[in-house]
Amino acid sequence: MRAPAPAYTSNDGVIDAARAALGGMLIDAVDHVGEVALHVRREDLYDAMIALRDTPGLAYQQLMEIAGVDYPDRAERFEVVYCMLSLTRNHRLRVHVATDEEKPVPSVTDIWPVAGWLEREVYDMYGVLFSGNPDLRRILTDYGFRGHPQRKDFPLTGYVELRYSEEAKRVVYEPVQLAQDFRTFDFMSPWEGANYVLPGDEKGALPQAKGAQTPLSADTIAKAAAAQSPTQAPSEPKSTESTAQTGIGKSESDATPKPANPDVIPTKGGGQNQ
């Protein structure tokens, strides 16, 4: 039985209430696929978060997550996305802030202490700076890591790889060495038909057996069957059909009596070995 209450309340009136509470701090508000997204000025982020938390009718008390997005073609390539939850209204929304590699985003650790680790993750993965974070350092990558892995321009192989060295008896870092070149993909579906023959597809040019499923025509199948060499039946049977062919029951011409065994004592009527 389904719960009588909906999973989340509707978005009716949320954008209007956010516009009234934020005023000029709000750049744009979007209601798409059932989710509300508020784009806020970077300089006004801290005050906007206070307003979203304390304004009646909004009351987004919890910061659930902070995520990063990279758009390399934009002047401000990064977006920091704050996922908010209102416990009293059972509603969620997102707050978006745009920035680049140099302009810091105001930290919200004074409002939600949990933001400390979340901002460190965004900094580690994207290189976004947060002003006011008391401990802004890497949290996911190793010490001395170079670059930010979630950026679109970060190489897929990275710069260094680590392994355990038996000579040094410790983990060592080395430049990445690929055992083979990257494979090239054309992203064509084999079901839609490619312009080339994949390795092994040449075996499907002729049917393997008569009656097998094949896209070839009946004439091609008949020609393929005729081209196959016929199997010759054996001229003589491999097994015997009578005792005359085996010689069983016939005594040899030079047969002699079985020599007596001195260790065997004859019994009345004889035995099996006598």
From TrEMBL:
Q: Which intervals of the chain are annotated as region Disordered?
A: 206-274
Topology versus the membrane:
Peripheral membrane protein
NAD among keywords: yes
Q: Span of the secretion signal? A: none
E.C. code:
7.1.1.-
Q: Where in the cell is it found?
A: Cell membrane
| Listed InterPro entries | NADH_DH_suC, NADH_quin_OxRdtase_su_C/D-like, NADH_UbQ_OxRdtase_30kDa_su
Under catalytic activity, the entry for this protein gives:
a quinone + NADH + 5 H(+)(in) = a quinol + NAD(+) + 4 H(+)(out)
Which segments show compositional bias classed as Low complexity?
222-235
Q: Tell me the keywords, alphabetical order.
A: Cell membrane, Membrane, NAD, Quinone, Translocase, Transport, Ubiquinone
Keyword Cell membrane attributed = yes
Give one Pfam hit by family name: Complex1_30kDa
Q: Which GO terms describe its cellular component?
A: plasma membrane
Task: Output the Gene Ontology terms for molecular function.
Answer: NADH dehydrogenase (quinone) (non-electrogenic) activity; NADH dehydrogenase (ubiquinone) activity; quinone binding
According to the entry, every stretch annotated as the NADH:ubiquinone oxidoreductase 30kDa subunit domain falls at 38-159
Give the multimer and partner information: NDH-1 is composed of 14 different subunits. Subunits NuoB, C, D, E, F, and G constitute the peripheral sector of the complex.
Similarity annotation = Belongs to the complex I 30 kDa subunit family.
Q: What does this protein do?
A: NDH-1 shuttles electrons from NADH, via FMN and iron-sulfur (Fe-S) centers, to quinones in the respiratory chain. The immediate electron acceptor for the enzyme in this species is believed to be ubiquinone. Couples the redox reaction to proton translocation (for every two electrons transferred, four hydrogen ions are translocated across the cytoplasmic membrane), and thus conserves the redox energy in a proton gradient.
What is the name of the protein in this document? NADH-quinone oxidoreductase subunit C
**Species for this entry:** Sphingomonas aurantiaca
